[in-house]
Known about the structure:
The complex is a heterodimer of chains A (101) and B (395). Chain A is built from three helices and five strands, in the order ββαβαβαβ. With 101 residues, chain A is of the alpha/beta class. In chain A, strands 1-2-3-4-5 form a five-stranded mixed β-sheet. In chain A, β1 and β2 form a beta hairpin. The longest helix of chain A is centred in the middle third of the chain and has 16 residues. The radius of gyration of chain A is 12 Å and the shape is globular. In chain A, 39% of the residues are buried. With 395 residues, chain B is mainly alpha-helical. Chain B is built from eight helices and two strands; from the N terminus they run αββααααααα. In chain B, a hairpin with a 2-residue loop joins β1 and β2. In chain B, α1 crosses α7. The N terminus and C terminus of chain B are likely disordered.
Amino acid sequence: MDYSIDAKDHEATVRLSGRLTFNDHAKLRALIREMSQNHARRQVLDLSSLEFVDSAGIGMLLIAREELVGQEKSLVLRQPVGQVKRVLSVAQLGKLISIEE
Amino acid sequence: MFFNRRDSSHGGSPHPVVKSSAFKTDEADAPGRAVPTAAARVDAAAVAHETLINWLGFADIQRRTMEILRSELDRTSVLVENSTLDLSARFRDLAESARNQASQVEHIIIMARSVEIDGDKVPIDHLVTSMQDAISGMIDNIVTLSMKAMNMVYLLDDVQKDVEDLEKCISDIDSINRQTNFLALNATIEASRAGEAGRTFAVVAQEVRHLSRTTSALADRMRAKVMAVVKGVRDGHDILRMIANTDMSPQMLAKERVDKTMESLVVQTNHFQDVLEGAAASSGEMSAHISRMVTGMQFQDLTKQRLEHVGDSMSIISAGLEELVTRTRAVLPTDSPAPMPQEWLDHLLGRFTLSEMRQRFVRHLLLEGTALDDHGALDATAGLDQGAEGDIELF
Lengths: 101, 395
């Protein structure tokens, strides 16, 4: 998995690409730290280029949410596609994290 | 056959055969209205006599034909009545079967709506919902466990870093200890050079070296323990990584398949139910139709009454004819045998295409008034041995 951050005043957009799996846990932790450190209140994960997410990836997304909520920031998942969209839907993640189509 | 004789010379018949021309206006009546001579009057009397004799034969056959037809009417009425009763009974059976079928189908409909689980009837749609809920609960657990496992992984990542720091601290203690030991050794050497003045200092230096060795031993024990903790944490971390690395997303996505299967199941069950309800309605309609048909069978009562009226009328006509025959016979000479209207009889018989009816007719004509008639030869079953009643012969 790779990511790039576009941080603005009110909103930071992180674009994820490739496959988000357990192997990316260190990288994702670094990402969470970056999201915690920038000042934007609204943190958007753009998933339109993410091809695959495993159950560990879902767990990491929830950890990111927990971390950001603790800092009174909001996390938004934007435009999931394919397998990622299906897994998010089946896991009913929309109940915990807002998902923008 | 009996009545194919056309030859009046054939002996033994009580009825001389006459031609049908005898019934027409004879040439004997033709010659105008001139004043009859005595010979003409004798001729006229002879013609009248012959006409009456012919009429008697014809009337006799007609009367008997009327009686036969009357009995055929009765026979037909009974046949219609029996057949109608039989048909009604069969139709009632059919209606009963249709009703049974409808109730069985309704039973199936009730059964199809639910399944029995541990003695409880659970409607299919409830079953589907509860199974979907169970799977959703399972997926929730997977998601929660995944999150906790990742939390644990991150925690152990941190613990590993802390343990590495701890190892470094122990190394630092070792390093300090070596320096202390070295300083104590130097102090001892310096104390021995100082001689008696340094004796006390030498004791202190010796104590410091002793302390240093004890510290070193403690550091060794600490390192051994820390190494054990490090190994435990690393092993635990490995196991946890293995657990967290087990991807459960395919199991989560199985819910999609289960949902689709359940939807199909519900759709199919509803479809079956619709079809079965249609079948139950059809059976009910069938039963109602059949009941109406049974009601329709009551035409037989009316038919029977009408046939009885017709038969009674024929009996009255027959009786009238017989009375007329008796009165006519009384004015004629007793030795005048009435001829049989053979051609008319042949014509009549030609109309009877049912052989058993024709046989009954012939038997009746032949035997009436004889001793055989008195002994039941003309009973209703006459002719039945020739074939089943009601079979239509195609000729």
